[in-house]
Amino acid sequence: MPLAGRRAKGTRAVGRGDVRDGIRWLRRLTLLGAGLLLVLLGAAVPATAHAALRESDPGDGTVLRTAPRHVTLTFTESVGLLTDSFRVYDPENHRLRTGTADHAPGRSDTARVPLPAKLATGTYTVAWRVVSADSHPVSGALTFSVGKRTATAASPVPDETENPATTALYNMARYLAYLAVALLLGIAAFVAYCRPPTAAPLRTPALAAAWTLLAATAALLLLRSPYEQGTSPADALSVSSLTHTATSRPGALLLARLALLLLGGAVVALLRARRRRLPRRFTLAATALFSAALAATWSAAEHASAGLQVPLAITSATLHLLAMAAWLGGLVALLRTLRRLESAAVPVLTRFSRMALASVTVLVLTGVYQSWRGLGSWQALTDTTYGRTLLAKLAAVTALLLVAACSRTWTNRLTGAARAARAETGRAAVPARTPEVATVPARGPEPAPASAAVPADAPEPATAGASLPPTPPPPAATFHLLRRSVLAEAAVGVLVLVLTTLLTSTLPGRAATEAARTDTVTTGIPTASVTTVPFDTGAAGGTGKVQITLDPGRVGRNSVQAVVYGPDGGLAAVPELRVSFTLPAQRVGPLDTKVTDRGGYWVADSFALPIPGTWTLKVTVRISDLDQVTVTAPVRVTK
Length: 639
Prior knowledge:
The protein is of the alpha+beta class. The chain is built from twelve helices and 17 strands.
């Protein structure tokens, strides 16, 4: 054996099997990380709703001379109403019988509920829950008073607005649906456009993606009503829940998605049973039509369905999702293809490179438009959760483009090597005038490796009996580098997909800015500052909390109201309560509010705060002759 074909004793060469083992472990770690991230996101806090309350009538915290006839809420986008969208509680925490909630005439963004004809003097609490136009529920509460403010036993939000189990299951189903549709549409686009020599390696991931998407869509359909109502997952199978979901726009889109998946699966099964292959142009057109219709069931139900330029926004969101699926799902298909093919995959790489370039172009154009539409201003890019999440996505996309550039470099090298090999084969295709007898080595013939196969698009030899030199395969090292680059590209793509899903669960920056600007009610009275401070004297039954309302919570004259709640959550009478404010940064205070007891409700009608800043609220609670405690909390006072 020649010296060049031996290995030095005690050394181990890194072969193709070692590289494949490393890629296999990297792939498993990527899938494990994606699964863990899915569980963490599903168990995260509830998603921020997309519709924000713009104004209310009566305004939050206002005192009215006469009782209102309606409670009217106006939001930043159109909203849908539930069977229990409004709950109104009187000062004794008894729920009032109200009329049926509906929309104001010609205003889909305004909801209202009629109140009883006569309301007693006191403070009322209104808890509300509606569904924003992009299918996410939003809830909150406000108070108003008739005649004068009184102590109310109703908490700001009487009931839980979210069921943690329902929210977690619903979010996990949403993330699974996004991952599955990206994989399914990406594989379909890869097979239809890139035309790999065999689609057998892609059947397993395609079937897994289709079944996952079908199961996730069914779960979203069942959980839709409990998610909107904030109830338990056990309510998913009730007749009323299913009826409500089927008659709502999000439910109709989910049903359309299920119908498309079942129809597509039936067509594919029929073609496979008859062993028929459709013309390439018809396959491309059918794949594009099916993909667009399926993607529209997302874009027509989320951010794009509300706000500015809705038709253009839905079109842009659909193209964005299709481009993302073609790129990220196509990467997974390419990774599976590169495991089986080498020189025969060069034409596939060339086609995928063109498809990826077109996808990136569409992603950039639609992404810029959607960012402008969602943000509204440069300041929202850093001042809102939507903007910060968008920055994280832009950073991930930048990393993805860098890795994609590396993949394109290796692809160009393989393409150049294939062209050179094809040219060499063409020159060697002319049959020799004097045929030569091939010499067989003494150790016997060896089978040609799979990597030495002639490319599918290589020219046929002119003469069947001509002796042609084998087409030299592209360098194996380049293929190994390309596989690793594609795997890294797919891993970063999963992160981009997760951040995209998070953006669909975040209040757009434009709406957040608008809601912040309209934080005051239509009457011009700013919302009162409410601070709840828990206390514990250390004695038996000496725990509770003090709720301090500073109205309007700005520089100048304010009213101070304080209510003490006992350990059971009910109103508690205490012999003494002192409330003071100190501004440590300016060495101002303590300023005593001099609240007085008015039958369990401590009030200071006029208290002046001279300058803005973060004041320290100090509350001293005495529950007996021997037991008292002093607690503090920060309070923000604006101009």
